[in-house]
Amino acid sequence: MKTILYPTRGGQTSYQNQDGVIKLAREGKAKLIFLYVSNVQFLEKLGYVRYTRVVEEELEELGEFLLAMACERAGNAGWKAEAVVRQGVFLEAVNEVIQEHQVDTLVIGAPGSTHAVTTTDFLQNLIHEIKETHQIEVLVIQDGQLIDL
Amino acid sequence: MKHLAPRKTFTLALFFIGLLSALWFLIPRPTYANEAESRYYITGRIFDPQGQPIVAAEISARIPDEEEAIAEAESQEDGSWGLVLNQVPEEVSVHIQRYHFVDQVIELDAVDLANLKDSSILRIEELALERKVTAGFWIATAIFIIVLLLIAFEILHSTTAALLGASAVLLVSALGTAFAPSIYILNFERALTYINWEVIFLVMAMMIVVAVIEETGIFQWTAFQAYRLSGGRSWVLVLILMAFTAVASALLDNFTTMLLMTPISLQIGLALGINPLALIIPEVLASNVGGISTLIGTPTNILIGASAGIGFNDFLINQTGGVVIALIAMGAYVIWHYRKEWAKVSGGISETLYDKLKENGRIRDLDALKKSGIVFVLTLFGFVLGERIHVVPAVPAIIGATVLLIWLKPDIHQMIKAVDWTTLVFFMTLFMVVGAVQEVGLMAVAATGISQIVGENLGLAVFVIVIGVGSFSTVIANIPLAASMLPVVDFLSGSIPGASSKVLYYALSMGAAMGGNGFLIGGEANLVTAGITAQAGSPISFKEFFKIGLPITYITLFIGYLWLMIRFGAF
Predict the structure, then answer these.
(1) How many Å is the Cα radius of gyration of chain A?
(2) Residue B123 shares a structural domain with residue B43
(3) Closest Cβ opposite residue B537 in set A14, A43, A64
(4) What is the rounded CA–CA span in Å between residue B380 and residue B216?
(5) Which of B106, B290, B311, B339 shows the smallest number of beta carbons within 10 Å?
(6) Which of B46, B80, B48, B47 lies closest to B441 in space, CA to CA?
């Protein structure tokens, strides 16, 4: 059985892409893993390092909730999904989970038309690095549809 | 264990009493007799052109053709000085010297000297020294402006910027002392006197108290209870969350409140099927305003309270009414602004999500909550009662923090880490930089400028401070803004009839805090909230924030202004 990994922020703008990945997993009868990676580096930039531990704990619970919602979406669409929450640098977390869960396909959300939180350059570099490191299939999804970047 | 017999105890007690009595007689005590008879005192007071006492001026008594002064003194906090002479010479003059002021020489005439001889004391009339604009004035002004710009444009971290400013001031002054007196600003000892240690200790103690409370889960629990109480009606939910955030910000601080409320509010918003920012942005707006009503609610209030002698009760009595009205108006605006969101509410959430929400909104440490709750309430009583016995708020805060550390026995290293030293260093160095521009007279120039605009019109002064400071505070961090404005408000409070009620300090408090709602960069709570929401795929854009923040800023500022006018009868 193939394993698909989909990192998500879990906000409303990612629902469409979540649905797209759920459909992809269901049609391919693949195991689906949602990944949430929190990063508290913004506290360092703001000069509030002392809150790091508290915010990490809060974001972990937030991540679990966001992924519980994503898993529920999968359940409603007739497919089962797993949730993995990690902290730290996004690429490192993705690399870890790919190895731990023997992921075959990584699906990455491309910047949407309005609420982009990543850039195309960032995604291209990320895809290139992951393909080189793990030799796995990397797909890009935007507004619920697979696209070529 | 062997006990001493009663007789032996009695003998021992007698021995100690005898020993103490002997010591009492043996310890030499100062003798005052005859000393005063041969001494003569010349006293006076000096002020700057704005009527503020001049501290640390060098006063000396000199006789003609003598290089050495026959008596020397330094002016005190209230501007008073006193020279002590062992004899009355035939001719004597009093020299007053102070950096950044024109030197003054007072020649004592025969009548003065005769009076001094007769009564041993001569009081010289109060004297206003003229300001001198030196190169140091321009250098200190430039350093001050550069520090503000570095902070405003986030070129450097605010603490680094303030530290840089303080270092530059001290370096220039050191060079001035050695090579060019005209560039001198102030020395290290003088710079230290500008640090308000009451502020430093109060902030530090409250950080420890908050660090204990933040671990208990009370914020998350309240947010979940608000969700339950609202019965799924998101407009009711937002009002409850705003009210709680405002109260929590007043009693603890708005930064921590938003740090802990944002993640759970995000979850509730997403579970309800609405844009979670429709809950979170109103919360942050309420948190910036709620803190105004207490001394410990905002760092600027701590600063203003310690500088102007405004206590916990004073803030509560004089600000709460205005804050409540401002919050009601804010609530109404929020309901209107997000009206489309309220209509979006989904039919309800699944049992799994509800259970997850309940789990995340649980009390995490009930024992710590009970104990910290008791200590916190007692600390608040300490603030209230302390004012009656002239105990500054930093004292009950330090006692409260210490009791918590002893009672709860948290990891002390963790607690020391919980103190935000970056902020404390920022406060200390900022005080030095603001002290530098006070020293050279920049603040006096600003105060005179504002004074010329408002004249003796108290209402106009309140308006200028509330709206002016509020407008600046939308883009400038409110702590440096309030610290810079305090000397100006000091002057205006002393010169405008009716301003002795301290209304202008309250105006400064309202302006600095309410202005933080204008733009995303206006307050630290805004920025940390945006940082957290971005982690959940719901970033707060600059535009989204100011579309609601800016109108609310001016609505609340205007309400704050009207409230102060009514409360202090300034119409």
Answers:
(1) 15
(2) yes
(3) A14
(4) 19
(5) B339
(6) B48
Is B538's Cβ below 8 Å from some Cβ in A?
yes
* B contacts of A49 (beta carbons < 8 Å): 422
The reply to whether residue A50 touches residue B271, judged by beta carbons under 8 angstroms, is no
3-state DSSP assignment of residue B250: helix
Report CA B3 to chain centroid distance, whole Å: 57
- pTM of the predicted model as reported, rounded to 2 decimal places: 0.81
Q: What residues make up the domain containing B426?
A: 133-193+422-438
| Residue B100: inside a domain | yes
Quickly list DSSP for B280-330.
Answer: HHHHHHHHHHHGGGSTTTSHHHHHHHHHHT--HHHHHHHHHHHHHHHHHHH
Last residue of a domain, one of B438, B463, B491: B438
Instruction: Tell me the DSSP string of B411-445.
Output: -HHHHHHHS-HHHHHHHHHHHHHHHHHHHHTHHHH
Tell me how far CA of residue B519 lies from CA of B245, B289, B542, B544, B548, in angstroms. 19, 14, 7, 10, 9
Instruction: Grade residue A118 by pLDDT with cuts at 50, 70 and 90.
Output: low
What tokens appear for B161 in the block?
């910027």
pLDDT category at B18 given cuts 50, 70, 90 is confident
Angle at B522 between CA B519 and CA B527, to 5 degrees: 90
CATH class of A3-147: alpha beta
Q: What percent of chain B has pLDDT over 90?
A: 60
User: Could you give the CA distance from residue A43 to residue B529 in angstroms, rounded to a whole number?
Assistant: 11
Contact B79, B45 (CB under 8 A): yes
- The two structure tokens encoding residue B516: 């933080």
- Which residues from A are below 8 Å from B418, CB to CB? 50
Identify whether the C-beta of residue B492 lies closer than 8 Å to the C-beta of residue B461.
yes
Contact call for residues A86 and A96 (beta carbons, < 8 A): yes
Contacts of B357 in chain A (CB under 8 A): 65
A123 touches chain B (CB under 8 A): no
Question: How far is B516 from B22, CA to CA, in rounded Å?
Answer: 66
For residue B33, the model assigns a pLDDT of 46
Q: Are residues B158 and A55, on separate chains, in Cβ contact within 8 Å?
A: no
Token reading at B131:
């300001």
Residue B555 lies in a domain: no
Residue B428 lies in a domain: yes
pLDDT of residue A51: 84
Exposed/middle/buried for residue B143 (C-beta within 10 Å: 0-12, 13-18, 19+):
buried
